[in-house]
Design a protein that fits this description.
CATH topology of the largest domain in chain A: TIM Barrel
CATH class of the largest domain in chain A: Alpha Beta
CATH architecture of the largest domain in chain A: Alpha-Beta Barrel
Number of helices of chain B: 26
Mean pLDDT of chain A: 92
Oligomer: heterodimer
Shape of chain B: globular
Number of domains of chain B: 3
CATH topology of the largest domain in chain B: Growth Hormone, Chain: A
Helix content of chain B: 55-70%
Structural class of chain A: alpha/beta
Strand content of chain B: 5-15%
Shape of chain A: globular
Number of helices of chain A: 10
CATH superfamily of the largest domain in chain A: Aldolase class I
Largest sheet of chain B: 7 strands, mixed
CATH architecture of the largest domain in chain B: Up-down Bundle
Largest sheet of chain A: 8 strands, mixed
Strand order of the largest sheet of chain B: 7-6-5-8-9-11-10
Low-confidence stretches of chain A: 17-29
Chain lengths: 396, 698
């Protein structure tokens, strides 16, 4: 091989640099500029198990896990959500709420809500379920996802010991809900599935007391616990964060298919549920994806489940994007309705006509929504007052 | 001085010009790419200086292996010039390669990204200064190191002044980079000399560097493009980067990379929560604004609306793209809001502050005891002050709780009634007269139509939530003062909490490395280390104090930065003369620094707000003069050889790095202005003790 002397090396090096730096073709070599958002940064932000992170001992707000397998070497496998955390003794689950203590799975989120509020049911949002009623809303810490735009990250991305909480065991939740004049108990704010034990016990008591149970969730739950929940569930609002598994992994740290399975199960069990889709610019604002999503909804769930397109605002870590343009939401609403979904709403935009309910039979305005108020309400016995078409939902 | 030495000296000056311009512009780049808080600003400066110090240290190793030569110096100069635009492109474009588009980034990734992108450039800049000296000494043994230090200072002053007073007004960052590197290119090219063997390579290198600089200018706007929206406006004002993106019908203005105003945003809470409390709102002062706010304010038919926005370029863009609408009675005042309040004789029925949360010393001034007193003094009887902080929707985390408590406690010192209305933002209403939380009822009474408040307020801002928030406020929370910005500490905690991280690991590693480094230093190098730390610490203190008392005046702050550089030059000259006086040169200048800092502290304590601007400039010049004079003296004490020179450059830069970080993010936020000055005095006292016990080099 011919030896390259220093002078030649310098010459060729400088020549290559000069060619690469030519102002015109230079752009081609630079990554980043205007690249598609989906290809930026990490592809998967799913959470991991917290090794040796369990507390020394259980506390007052602990309870044995609802569903888990005991494995060799005192390991346990949680069976509530599709993360299926396999925990060695002393480990903490992805959702941060469950620990393996001596070969048994325990939840640390039982009777210790960190958020307790009374909200209008429309805030969840549930538009077709007992309108104008109040929901006694509770949440403990924890989430199975890692959404970059989480509105409640201070509790969803925290461990039970890290937050202030009140003490409200299931019977107390029910009595407080009744005292507040609420028609329902909503398991909301953080991810309700992560405090499944607390939710199911409370929901059973609430059902006995004549209260409804509302599950506001990312839908990331296994079939068996979901079937158990369905026995006492009144309604659900489940986030369909996008119709792309890649985006689920990238923005939410989750997976799409288990969420779709949840919708299927809820539909099979005849539970009233509504779907929300947060339209994140650059990620979830692709009309083709929305068409695919609507196609799946129609084919699998039918046209009657309300779908809410929500406006994105910069929040938490996803705070360097513009809000969703109004016309994108309007376009998606039209598109979904053209595909055949009957009740499509626009959310996070005050007093937009896209928040109103129109009869799918006669196309007349049935519910005019001005925020949480409803100056017009023309549904009688669950049917359109004008043409008698049955409007899907639970209206009384 | 022969022609060759003159050219090497020219390279030193040109490197100073290029590096200072690059440094100041890069701080802006990083602020636009990452979080614009004081922690990140300090982190960038720290990384820059530390890497520079490492580069200087590497120069010594390189010189040990091979004698320095002009050919290599010329090549490195051209490389440095060509590297500058690459650095800018890297900062802008690699962000979306490593981090998810649209997300903010936490402490450790910011540190890693900053260090990795800056490393090639900063190591080279740090390398070049001692290497230039070695080159000079290769031709003329015994060439004074102090002269190189002086020439570098001259370049720094020239670069700082060129950017602050000319380029920033006239050109974009990469155009500025191009201009600032022309002298370096010229000096590097001239230094290649007449040897024909190297001409083609040198010519190619020159064109490569020029090509890269030109590519920077040409591709600058493109580097800011995103896939989800169209960039319709890009301007680098003297206060930061303003970009406007159009996505369908919506325009969103980004200030330093963060969305600030949008045409479809809702300003009802910011406008109506305070104004609904008043029977008449004749005269209103808005300090900054949220999108659509003026249209909401107009519903009260005020006779006068003063809209104060510091940056003329920002207000121009806001009106141009319909983010704010011109209304009758509107006067746009491009001035620092606090300065405006201290100058105006007008009285307002309402003062509404819509600034971002206090993440920097600059914004902290709008959330302090003295600001609230000033605002109250400009309110008409029955007037109201309003501002906002982070929200409370379902849960109030501890840093947020402390933040709101500090703000409530600080405002309560001046107003009889404070009402906190929770929501996506917590709105503070401060007034001596009673405050009514039933905003929808008050709006109905006045016949003012709203979208959000009329429909959602009663479900979102419930008496239960207002009560919960009130009950969560910590009794006896400390006061946020100008001189002791407690709120900034909380903001730092909140930032770390958001990314579930802590700075303690970094602090521990940094402390361990600093101790190790200090153990290896000679006495005179320790003095230089403390001098570097004191100079940067004092500069930060002066800028901080200046902003408190005079407001954010761009030219004033530019002047302070310039005088802190300018004093180094005569200081080095003086030090060169003093160095003949042996071991007493360092203790005497250390003592002078201690006295200067003490005088600064006393002057602030007894009349900071009455001191003229000249005091701050004079102090800055005197400190930098004293600091500059120590370098030649220390070099002389160290024996003046090449290794000593490299170690001296390194100690100065590493000290400056530590001084920047510790003063900005530890001392001022934790113990306040006066105690921070005391710490610097303590540091210099330690240095004095070490310097006084030093022996002269033989």
């Amino acid at each position: 091989m011919k030896r390259v002397d220093r002078r030649t090396l310098l010459k060729y090096g400088a020549a290559s640099l000069a060619a690469a730096s030519c102002p015109f073709p230079a752009h081609a070599f630079w990554p980043g500029a205007g690249q598609k958002a989906e290809t930026s940064g990490a592809d998967d932000i799913r959470g991991t198990i917290f090794r040796n992170d369990a507390p020394e001992s259980l506390w007052k707000w602990s309870k044995e896990g609802f569903s888990f397998d005991r494995l060799a070497d005192k390991r346990v496998a949680c069976k509530v959500c599709p993360n299926r955390c396999v925990l060695a003794p002393g480990d903490r689950s992805v959702c941060r709420s469950k620990v393996n203590m001596g070969g048994t799975l325990y939840t640390l989120a039982y009777g210790n809500p960190s958020a307790v509020h009374v909200d209008p049911i429309e805030k969840k949002p549930l538009f077709h379920y007992k309108p104008r009623t109040k929901a006694f809303s509770i949440a403990t810490t924890g989430c199975s996802f890692r959404c970059l735009n989480c509105q409640n990250w201070e509790i969803s991305q925290a461990k039970p010991h890290e937050v202030r909480h009140s003490e409200l065991f299931p019977p107390a939740v029910v009595s407080e809900a009744i005292k507040s004049g609420s028609a329902s108990v909503a398991y909301t704010y953080s991810e309700a599935t992560t405090y499944f034990e607390y939710m199911i016990d409370t929901a059973r008591l609430a059902r006995q007391a004549g209260l409804n149970n509302l599950w506001i969730s990312n839908g990331f739950i296994n079939r068996a616990p979901l079937l158990e929940l369905c026995k006492v569930l009144g309604a659900a609002n489940v986030n369909l964060k996008s119709f792309s598994d890649d985006i689920y992994r990238k923005l939410n740290g989750g997976r799409l298919q288990p969420v779709l399975d949840t919708f299927t199960t809820l539909n099979e069990r005849g539970i009233h549920f509504e779907m929300t889709n947060l339209v994140v610019p650059g990620y979830v604002d692709d009309p083709e994806m929305v068409k695919r999503m609507c196609g799946w909804i129609l084919a699998t769930l039918g046209p009657d489940h309300p779908l809410h397109f929500l406006r994105f605002f910069p929040l938490y870590k996803l705070d360097r994007l513009a809000p969703t343009p109004l016309s994108t939401l309007e376009q998606f609403r039209k598109l979904a309705m053209a595909e055949g979904i009957r009740y499509v709403y626009i959310g996070n935009i005050p007093n937009h006509e896209g928040a109103n309910t129109w009869c799918h039979g006669c196309k007349k305005l049935l519910i005019e929504r001005r925020g949480y108020a409803m100056p017009t309400f023309d549904i009688t016995d669950g049917a359109c007052r004008f043409c008698g078409t049955k409007i899907p939902g639970v209206w009384s | 001085m022969d022609g060759r030495n003159r050219l090497v000296t020219l390279v030193v000056v040109a490197t100073g010009i290029s590096s200072v311009v690059t440094q100041l512009l890069l701080i802006r780049e990083f602020l636009a790419a990452f979080q614009g808080n004081e922690f990140v600003i300090a982190l960038i400066l720290f990384t820059w200086l530390l890497l520079g110090g490492t580069g200087a240290w590497l120069a010594r190793i390189a010189a040990d292996r091979r004698p320095a030569g002009t050919g290599m110096l010329a090549g490195l100069s051209l490389l440095l010039a060509g590297l500058t635009p690459v650095l800018f492109f890297a900062v802008r474009l690699l962000r979306d390669v490593f981090f998810i588009h649209g997300t903010s980034v936490g402490f450790y990734p910011t540190l890693a990204y900053t260090a990795c992108t800056l490393a090639p450039y900063c190591l080279l800049v740090g390398f070049l200064l001692p290497y230039s000296l070695f080159t000079l000494r290769a031709g003329q043994p015994g060439y004074p190191g102090a002269f190189v230090y002086m020439m570098d200072s001259l370049g720094d002053v020239a670069g700082g002044a060129l950017l602050s007073f000319a380029l920033i007004y006239l050109v974009t960052p990469l155009q500025a980079v191009f201009i600032a590197n022309v002298p370096l290119l010229a000096a590097g090219w001239l230094l290649t000399g007449p040897d024909r063997r190297f001409r083609p390579a040198a010519l190619l290198a020159l064109f490569a560097a020029l090509g890269l600089l030109a590519a920077g200018v040409r591709g600058e706007r493109r580097t800011l493009a995103t896939s989800e929206a169209e960039l319709v406006h890009y301007q680098e004002s003297r206060h930061g980067r303003i970009t406007v993106f159009k996505s369908r019908e919506q325009y969103t203005l980004f200030s330093n990379g963060s969305p600030a105003l949008s045409t479809q945003s809702l300003a009802e809470e910011a406008a109506h929560f305070p104004l609904a409390q008043l029977d008449t709102a004749e005269s209103i002062l808005l300090i900054s604004a949220v999108g659509g706010m003026l249209a909401e304010v107009e519903k009260y038919r005020p006779a006068r609306v003063d809209y104060v926005e510091l940056d003329p370029a920002m207000s121009a863009a806001q009106f141009k793209y319909g983010l704010l609408q011109k209304i009758p009675g509107l006067e746009i005042i491009n001035e620092d809001g606090r300065r405006w309040l201290s100058l105006t004789g007008r009285r307002y029925d309402a003062i509404i502050v819509s600034l971002q949360e206090p993440e920097t010393f600059q914004t902290n001034r709008f959330f302090t005891d003295r600001f609230f007193a000033l605002a109250k003094s400009r309110l008409a009887p029955g007037g109201i002050l309003s501002f906002s902080a982070g929200g409370f929707e379902s849960y109030l985390a501890e840093p947020q709780r402390l933040k709101l408590s500090i703000l409530a406690a600080t405002a309560a010192r001046h107003f009889g009634n404070i009402l906190l209305l929770p929501g996506r933002s917590t709105i503070f209403l401060c007034r001596d007269q009673p405050l009514d939380p039933d905003i929808p009822a008050r709006l109905r009474e006045r016949g003012i139509a709203t979208d959000y408040i009329s429909g959602y307020y009663e479900g979102d801002v419930t008496p239960e939530r207002i009560g919960q928030l009130r009950d969560l406020l910590i009794a006896g929370a400390p006061t946020n003062r100008d001189e002791s910005p407690r709120l900034m500490r909380v903001m730092f905690s909140q930032w770390f909490a958001k990314f579930a991280t802590s700075p303690w690991a970094f602090a521990a590693v940094l402390c361990a490395l600093t101790v190790l480094y200090l153990c290896r230093l000679r006495r005179q190098e320790f003095v230089l280390f403390t001098t570097g730390a004191t100079a940067m610490g004092a500069e930060i203190l002066v800028i901080f104090a200046f902003q408190i008392y005079f407001g954010y005046i761009y030219v004033g702050i530019g002047l302070i930065v310039t005088v802190f550089l300018a004093g180094l030059l005569p200081g080095a000259w003086l030090g060169n003369r003093l160095s003949g006086r042996g071991r007493w040169a360092l203790p005497v200048t250390d003592l002078l620094l201690i006295l200067l800092l003490a005088a600064f502290m006393l002057a602030l304590h007894f009349g900071g707000d009455r001191l003229p601007v000249a005091f701050y400039l004079g102090f800055g010049f005197a400190v930098s003069l004293a600091c500059g004079s120590q370098f030649p003296a220390a070099l002389q004490l160290g024996g003046g050889g090449n290794p000593a020179a490299a170690r001296a450059f390194s100690a100065d830069l590493v000290g400056a790095a530590c001084g920047t970080l510790v003063t900005s993010v530890v001392l001022i936020p934790r113990i306040g202005l006066f105690q921070a000055t005391l710490c610097l005095i303590g540091l210099k006292a330690a240095s004095l003790a070490v310097a006084a016990s030093a022996r002269e080099a033989r």
